Amino acid sequence: MAYTVLARRYRSQRFAGVIGQQPVAETLKNAIASGRVAHAYLFCGTRGVGKTSMARLFARALNAPDTVEDAPRAEGVAYPPEDVQERMAQAIMSGQDMNVVEIDGASNNSVDNARQLIANAGLSPTANALYKIYIIDEVHMLSGAAFNALLKTMEEPPPHVKFILCTTEAHKVPPTIQSRCQRFEFRDIPTAQIAEHLRGVLDGEQTQASDEVLWQVARLGRGSMRDALSLMDRLLATGENPLTPRVLSDMLGLPQQSLVTGLVSAMAAGDLPGTLEGTAELLGRGVGQDQLTEVLIEFLRNLMLIAACGPGSELVELSEDVKPEAAELAERFDAAGLVHMMTLLENLQRSAKSSPTPRALLDATVVRLALSEKVADVAGLLAGPGGPGGPDGPGGKKKA
């Protein structure tokens, strides 16, 4: 039997299940309940944040509201029997419904495709459905001629036709099309919400995982639920249960959090041998230099957020297991010093790409990070008590 990836098997079946997009969900539900459903919608946002899932749910709620747990019923509307609605819902979610047509804008971008869509839109919906709904994914890929052909139909479509346009690049959709749509912005999903959803998915898969694994995968999703679920698919393919940081390191090349914390701790102590040895150990475990630099920047960012906002801030993207140790480590820095360290690492990222000796640049940079306290002390002596590098000036303090 063919395996279905997590992103498809755990696709949202109710509006509340589209993680991180509740403002959009509530607005669409209110539009249905109040009878104010527009003829065209434009869903904008990065990949994997729920645009197509929301479009399918909205289509189900319009034609088969009894199949969506939290969908309202419009007053005075006669819907088909429940068994008919169930068949509609299954066809909609599998992309096989005759009345809910999903079109890929990249492969159906010609003016002939647009004219065929317009011709079909004039036909009434079948099988007791109320609406014929067109979901056009990656709509920005349509040609200029195709957009022009759609203009009139999108402005004054037949009463039974609804358009839902989805795009990751809204700036490429002509203003003439955007002005005919109600536009909704889909936000990147917070790391904490992705991690929480991943926990529920693993429960369904009867697999255990540490908080560190969940948070690392959620962070790598970078706001995209689909990307995070794709990474989790790779981890589950190992057959390991429970999923541990070692599995994450072996499969994705990510360094273990304890090693990263140890390296930054050595930097904070000005321990040059410990800093260089910690860097060498991480590289020796198969972590690429670019990836190590990126992980260090991300960890220092979290320390900066802890130093500025406290460990309880929602901005801090660390698991509860890691937060206490990170909070102790953050006390050894100030926010200005952490910003300076992140800047040095960012400069390393750029210069290492064109250098014939990137490892030497990495070693020099981590040593410079470990020596930053002494450099600050020298700057303070040169600048005096009130200078920018002095003990009373900005950026001149690094806590012991």
TrEMBL record:
Keywords: ATP-binding, DNA replication, DNA-directed DNA polymerase, Metal-binding, Nucleotide-binding, Nucleotidyltransferase, Transferase, Zinc. Residues 37-190 form the AAA+ ATPase domain. PANTHER family: PROTEIN STICHEL-LIKE 2 (PTHR11669:SF0), REPLICATION FACTOR C / DNA POLYMERASE III GAMMA-TAU SUBUNIT (PTHR11669). Residues 383-394 have a biased composition (Gly residues). This is DNA polymerase III subunit gamma/tau. InterPro entries: AAA+_ATPase, DNA_pol3_clamp-load_cplx_C, DNA_pol_III_gamma-3, DNA_pol_III_sug/sutau_N, DNA_Rep/Repair_Clamp_Loader, HLD_clamp_pol_III_gamma_tau, P-loop_NTPase. DNA polymerase III is a complex, multichain enzyme responsible for most of the replicative synthesis in bacteria. This DNA polymerase also exhibits 3' to 5' exonuclease activity. It catalyses: DNA(n) + a 2'-deoxyribonucleoside 5'-triphosphate = DNA(n+1) + diphosphate. It is an enzyme of class 2 (transferase). CDD domains: AAA, HLD_clamp_pol_III_gamma_tau. Its EC number is 2.7.7.7. Coiled coil: none annotated. GO terms for molecular function: ATP binding; DNA binding; DNA-directed DNA polymerase activity; metal ion binding. GO terms for biological process: DNA-templated DNA replication. The keyword Secreted does not apply. DNA polymerase III contains a core (composed of alpha, epsilon and theta chains) that associates with a tau subunit. This core dimerizes to form the POLIII' complex. PolIII' associates with the gamma complex (composed of gamma, delta, delta', psi and chi chains) and with the beta chain to form the complete DNA polymerase III complex. Belongs to the DnaX/STICHEL family. The keyword ATP-binding applies. GO terms for cellular component: DNA polymerase III complex. Pfam families: DNA_pol3_delta2 (PF13177), DNA_pol3_gamma3 (PF12169), DNAX_ATPase_lid (PF22608). It comes from Phycisphaera mikurensis (strain NBRC 102666 / KCTC 22515 / FYK2301M01). Residues 381-400 are annotated as: Disordered. It comes from the Bacteria.
